[in-house]
Design brief:
It is a single chain. About 40% of the residues lie in helices and about 20% in strands. The protein has a single domain (about 5-144), classed as Phosphoglycerate mutase-like (Rossmann fold). It has helices at about 20-35, 50-60, 75-90, 100-115; strands at about 5-10, 40-45, 65, 95-100, 130-135, 140-144. It is globular, with a radius of gyration of 14 Å. By secondary structure, it is of the alpha/beta class. Strands 3-2-4-1-5-6 form a 6-stranded mixed beta sheet, with helices on both faces. It is built from 4 helices and 6 strands, in the order βαβαβαβαββ. β2 (about 40-45), α2 (about 50-60) and β3 form a beta-alpha-beta unit.
Length: about 140
Amino acid sequence: MKTIVIARHGSNTEKGNLSPQGKEQIKYLATLLKKVVKKPAILTSTALRAVESAKILGSLFKVQAEKHQFLYRGVELEKLTNLIKSKAGTTDCIIIVTHLQYIDLFSKHIGKIFLETNFSEQQNIDNGQALIINCKTKKINLVG
């Protein structure tokens, strides 16, 4: 696996679905990711705004997103580790669509477990942005 992308869902309405702005944020992110990602596996939390974001990404890459409750409520890092390991042999990129409160946790965990490195900087990102983790260079970049 070359790349892991941790994406924050687009802006949402009070009802929890993507706002028109949120849809545009994710479409823009998708065009940026398309430049560096070919055919990813897309994993998403079960929250409506994340599912809708993952569907937009999936439509561009022509892949179905997989929904996982533990990416939203009751986060279990061991399950995340096992899921990434299970996908690693079948794709060169995994996109995880999640929420602000998990971006930092996930990036640090992935750095520690998979790359044997420490991403010590706080990784707060805006709606519709993503962190691209290059597994070969062990570098992390913000896009969107």
